[in-house]
Amino acid sequence: MSRVDEKPAVVLLSGGLDSATVLALAQHQGYLCYALSLDYGQRHRVELKAAARVAQQAGVVEHKTLPIDLRPIGGSALTDSTIDVPETMDEGIPITYVPARNLLFLSLALGWAEVIGASDLFIGVNAVDYSGYPDCRPEFIDAFQKTSNLATQAGVEGRPFTIHTPLINLSKAEIIKQGSQLGVDYSVTLSCYQADLRGRACGRCDSCRLRKAGFKAANIADPTQYFG
Amino acid sequence: MSRVDEKPAVVLLSGGLDSATVLALAQHQGYLCYALSLDYGQRHRVELKAAARVAQQAGVVEHKTLPIDLRPIGGSALTDSTIDVPETMDEGIPITYVPARNLLFLSLALGWAEVIGASDLFIGVNAVDYSGYPDCRPEFIDAFQKTSNLATQAGVEGRPFTIHTPLINLSKAEIIKQGSQLGVDYSVTLSCYQADLRGRACGRCDSCRLRKAGFKAANIADPTQYFG
Fold first, then answer.
1. A178 belongs to a structural domain
2. Which of A92, B33, B69, B159 has the most CB atoms within 10 Å of its CB?
3. Rounded CA separation B68/A52 (Å)
4. Which of A140, A153, A156 sits opposite B151 (nearest CB)?
């Protein structure tokens, strides 16, 4: 992996396992990382505390949390409290899908990147061990990158953006192995969609199941605290 | 213009002249309109009152105003109070450009559209009498439409979105003529970037100049209230 010369980059940081790994990978490549978290009315809002811990441990240049309340739009178990988080994995796109979420988050990251003069964005989408979300696929990322270069002054003026997705072809176990090699402390990350207020995970939602299986397959001890 | 059979559509409504015209055009085509306004920390936040008046006069199905504070990102005279709104029009992209704004607003409109089952989005971008913003050009809109169909469950499942830009090739005078024919009451709209708290316009910023010149070229009396 070639090191970049301390270029600034915006890294989307949810507080989960994937984005913590992405941040470590970006830093390992030599990027000066600006971490962006979104307070979007998510049921598992306690993940923002995890994001703050991850950002602090990593020593990012700046960590910004933007409020963008998606509850008035709803349409997802994550942003509508009347829809339960499922504890079985079914076929198709699950009800935890938040309409246009990654498009929205990348748009905000893009705006910040343009302001600070960064040409590089990092997002922890993954097309292998994922939940079937359409906005985690490479074809979406490619289309977004093209759009970002038409939407912005930087793009128009010949400073194109690159959307980095270093996890996109990795299994959850591979992600955990890579992060562990880089010293990521997964005990401070939170993946659960219905964590309790102390940040303990349910162990039963999609996100918990994928995470649990990942640690098992990686043969690395799972540091997650579970409730119940 | 063919009438649609009362299909739902999301219309981005700023409270300005252009989006009020777009709303009227969409309704004239038979769309059931859901209007979306964004409270993004804009200097001319009083435009949201204009948006509410426009939505009410038009009789939309629903008018939603989402808060998404872009001031922490800044980088524009519209979202950073330390940058003055220019009163002369220079070459190039002006400092009133808000990084990734239309991409962000369309992403939010897309999210809402997906939740209510709408396949049609309307936005009042214009590539003729405009301020040189990159995100008002047809190539951006085309790229966004492609992205939206890769980003969403609806797109993946074969219910593609269409981004309508009925003003894109019209001059400001043509926009005003079309809107006037449809009965748009431009006295309740607000275009000024630095309007006062009573919603009166400065008459000097880019947006005011384009609007003023449009009424003059259309040979229609300008109902705008100016201060100073």
1. yes
2. B33
3. 21
4. A140
Per the prediction, chain A carries an average pLDDT of 93
DSSP label at residue B186: G
> Touching check for A147 and chain B: CB below 8 Å?
yes
| A216 reaches B (C-beta below 8 A) | no
Q: Which chain A residue has the Cα nearest residue B95?
A: A153
Angle at B84 between CA B83 and CA B89, to 5 degrees: 120
How many other CB atoms are there within 10 angstroms of residue B221's CB atom?
A: 10
CA distance A222 to chain B (A): 32
Within-domain flag for B30: yes
For the segment A128-157, the average pLDDT, to the nearest whole number, is 91
Q: What is the dihedral of CA A134, A94, B160, A170, to 10 degrees?
A: 10
Structure tokens at A22: 């992405």
For residue A55, the one-letter residue type is: A
Which residues, 6+ apart, have CB-to-CB distance to B189 below 8 Å? B15, B16, B17, B20, B50, B54
Instruction: For residue B71, give both structure tokens.
Output: 């001031």
Question: Which residues are A162's β-sheet partners?
Answer: A120
Residue A156 CB contacts under 8 Å (≥ 6 apart), including other chains:
A149, A150, B93, B134
Contact A177, A186 (CB under 8 A): no
Contacts of A174 (CB under 8 A, 6+ apart): A218
What residues make up the domain containing B174? 8-218
ipTM: 0.93
CATH number of the domain that A82 lies in?
3.40.50.620
What residues of B are in contact with residue A64 (Cβ under 8 Å)?
72-73
Cα distance between residue B112 and residue B108, in whole Å: 6
Distance CA A97, CA A73 (A): 13
Look at residue A130 in the predicted model and tell me its pLDDT.
65
Query: If you average pLDDT over residues A54-82, what whole number do you get?
Result: 93
User: Could you report the per-residue pLDDT of B182-212, keeping only the tens digit for each?
Assistant: 999 999 999 999 999 899 999 999 899 999 9
| Residue B228, domain member (yes or no) | no
* Distance (Å, whole) CA A121 – CA B81: 27
Q: Quote the number of domains for chain A.
A: 1
The total of other beta-carbon atoms located within 10 Å of residue A88's CB is 9
What is the Cα–Cα distance from B150 to A134, expressed in whole angstroms?
A: 7
